[in-house]
Every structure is written in structure tokens, then in C-alpha cells.
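Lecture notes, unit on protein representations.

Consider one protein chain, 339 amino acids long.
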Amino acid sequence: MPSSTTENSPKRRRLLKYLGGGIVLLGVLYTGGWYYLANELESRVATNIAAFKEKGIDATCENARANGYPLRVGLDCTKVGWADPAKNLSITAGTFRSAAQIYDPLQIVSRIDGPAAIDVPGIIPLDAKWDNLTSSIRLDRPLPRQISIQGSNVIVNQRNAAAGDAPMAVVQGGELHFVANEPQMDVALSFNKLKIADNLIDNRSLPQLTGAADVQLANGFALLGKPERDLTVLRGQSGTLRKIDVAFDDGSGIAVTGPFSIADDGRISGDFKVTMRNPEGVAKALQGIFPEAGNTISSVLQAMAFVPKDETGAPTLPITVKNGKMSVGFINIGRLPSL
């Protein structure tokens, strides 16, 4: 009488054959689907570039090619650029790489290589280079929900600068984040060891700075449709300064927090707390930037000894701003310029 093992062997072989065939079929279907998506991506890029050209905008993505098989899908370009002659705006850079995981196609990460040539109205032509520049975008409708940009060792200089000229600006590292939750928008910025060339801003010598900003705009979505390209775009906005912090090399610095609003005429109102870490260090740095205000800065430094301290011992001053007029209690201390 044949054993049960002998009887089951053909069934097992057939099962393994079907299983192997199924895996091969799935692999073929998956591969075909991936290459279909890749072809659609390349076609969409070509279509969008052609549409921009019809509008007079020269968008460039040279040698566009889909990449990432088997677990990702993305796009590589050997050179990217954007030129809008009507606005005198032009930006070109090097290799661009982007990718999204197959299981999370709405989260796109990318990297772009330098150098970059930047032409913007009102600014001298610039060249920029960096060690690393990456971004991450969470797509949504009608606009991306999250955008993050990170860069390291970024150097900006005047185009065709002479050999040996100091860079216009150098920053060791920086990050910029947007998080949108309509109508609200959160904007966070940080930079480490930023040095702007002396005499570039109002012929003043500026120290190396490290800083951060975290701002919540109550109606930030409204900014996206406005044509303004300067600070007047903030008129009509309100929100909260969660943190505005600028620090000098010795660890001294100034931090500002509090709610604010900006009227339609650009006048600012708000209730702020201004904290000064190591007032002596701050005074020394400010006297280096504004030597003509040395006596005023010294007087403010003396007054800080009588200001209430926070839990770390840093002087913290409550400042009220109404339609641009600043006051501490009933004492007027100046006026903020309108945006």
C-alpha cells in the first residue's frame, strides 16, 4: 500500500509550480505597471514644460528620466532651470533627483546639486553653491500640505566675483518648513552660523548669527494668491510669534514671542515678550553694528538690571504695540515702521 507521503508529492510539486508561476506573473504585472507609471511621469514632465513655453516661460529639465525601480518612482534631470523674461527672473542649477516610495506616492523627496545662477529683479546677479540641498513635499489638493527644505554649507556670491573676494553670505546650515492646514499656515526657519559680508547692508559690519523663527499665520493660505513680492503681502494677516530668536557667537541673544496682527495699512499691533540673554553680550554686539547709538545702547543696558527676569534669570520685557506705537506700560519707547 503506497504511503501518504508518496501520494502527496505530486500535489506539492503542482502547488509549488502554481505558486512560482503566480509570483512570476505578479512580478511581470508589477514591472509593467511601474514602467507604465514611469512613462506617464516622463510624458507629464514634457507636457508641462511645453505648456510653460507657450506662456513664455523657459522651464528646463534636461534629459528627464524616470528612476527608482523597483520600490520607488522618481525623476532625474541633468540640469534644471526656470526663466521668466516678463519678470526678469531666472534660476538654473545642476542635477535634480526626486523619488517617492511606491506605497506612499504623495511624499516626494528630492535633491538638487549646485552651482546655481540666480537673477532676480532688484538684486545683482548671484551664484550659489552648497554641499547638500534637499527637500520633502507632502502633496495634497489644492496645494501641498507640507514643504521642507534643508541645506548645508551654502555660499552665495556676486556673479563673476574676483578671485579672493569674500562671499556675500555663508551659512553653515539652514532649514525652512511650511505646514498648511487651511486656512492656517505654520512657517518655521532656522539657520546656523550665518555670516553676511561687511558693508553689504547699509555699510555696516555684521557679526556671525544663529537664529530661528516659528510663526503661525491664522490665514496663511490667503498669501498664496497674492501678487505682492515684498512684506506688504502680510497686510491683513494675524498670528502668533511662537519664537523669533537671534543669537551671537558668545551665546547672547534676543528672543521675541507673542500674538500680532497687521492692519490693511501695514501698521503692526501685538503683545510681545522680549527676552535678552546675557545683556552685556547683546549690547556689545549691537554697539559694533550701530556705533552711533552707543550711548543709547548703554542706557538700555543699565535699565535692563531693573527688568523682571524669567526662570533662567534672563531679563524679560513686556512690550505692547498698538498701530505701530511701542510702549512698556505707560511709557512710549518708539514706533515700528509700517509694512
